[in-house]
Structure formats: structure tokens, C-alpha cells
Structure to design on (122 residues):
């Protein structure tokens, strides 16, 4: 586990895993209904199922990255999760309020950086 990696590489990898595991726990426990309601409003089919598949991708990928076990597969799973979650939840072009639109664009830029970090793990 973590063979041949520097302290900073290990720390970065654990921070990436913590991002997904921490937000996954938070969303699953406190924000499930909020996310489902938004998905229904966006006409996502089977919103509860899609949401829990997303949570599963988030948790499994996060654990794989955290434990440095088949990290390339875990990172790929997390990349797919970020792309899909961004497509579902950050539709800035549908947001009328300029400040909220700006936030969604900022989230998309942040997600591009997160995908970049995951690519470095691969």
C-alpha cells in the first residue's frame, strides 16, 4: 500500500479520498431528500436509484483511493461520478439568478480540477 509514493503524494491521495467520503456521508445522511427533489425537478428518471448508485460510486471509489487498492479503477469511478453529478446538479444555463449561476459555473471549474487530480492518481 502506497509503495514508492512520497509523503505528499500519500497526503494528496488521502485528501482526495476524504473529499468524496466526507461529502458522500454528508449527502447521504442529511441531504438525500434535497437531492432527490432536485433530480425530480430536472426530470431525472428513477431519482432515488440514480442517487444511490451515485453514492455507491462515491463510497467505493473513495475507499479504493484511500486504501490505495486498484487506485486507477477507483479514480476512474470517481471521474465518472463527478461528470455525472455535474451534469445533473450544475446546469448553470438553467439558472436565472446571476449569483447562483456564478456558483454553478465555479463548481464546474472546481470539478474540472478534481478530475485533474484524479487523473494524476491514474
Amino acid at each position: 500500500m502506497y509503495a514508492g509514493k512520497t509523503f505528499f503524494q500519500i497526503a494528496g491521495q488521502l485528501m482526495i479520498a476524504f473529499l468524496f467520503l466526507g461529502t458522500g456521508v454528508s449527502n447521504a445522511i442529511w441531504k438525500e431528500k434535497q437531492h432527490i427533489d432536485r433530480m425530480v425537478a430536472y426530470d431525472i428518471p428513477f431519482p432515488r436509484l440514480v442517487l444511490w448508485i451515485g453514492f455507491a460510486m462515491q463510497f467505493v471509489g473513495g475507499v479504493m483511493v484511500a486504501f490505495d487498492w486498484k487506485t486507477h479503477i477507483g479514480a476512474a469511478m470517481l471521474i465518472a461520478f463527478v461528470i455525472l453529478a455535474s451534469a445533473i446538479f450544475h446546469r448553470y444555463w438553467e439558472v436565472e439568478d446571476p449569483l447562483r449561476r456564478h456558483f454553478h459555473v465555479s463548481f464546474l471549474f472546481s470539478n474540472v480540477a478534481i478530475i485533474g487530480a484524479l487523473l494524476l492518481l491514474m
In short: The chain has five helices and no strands. Residues 7-121 form one domain.
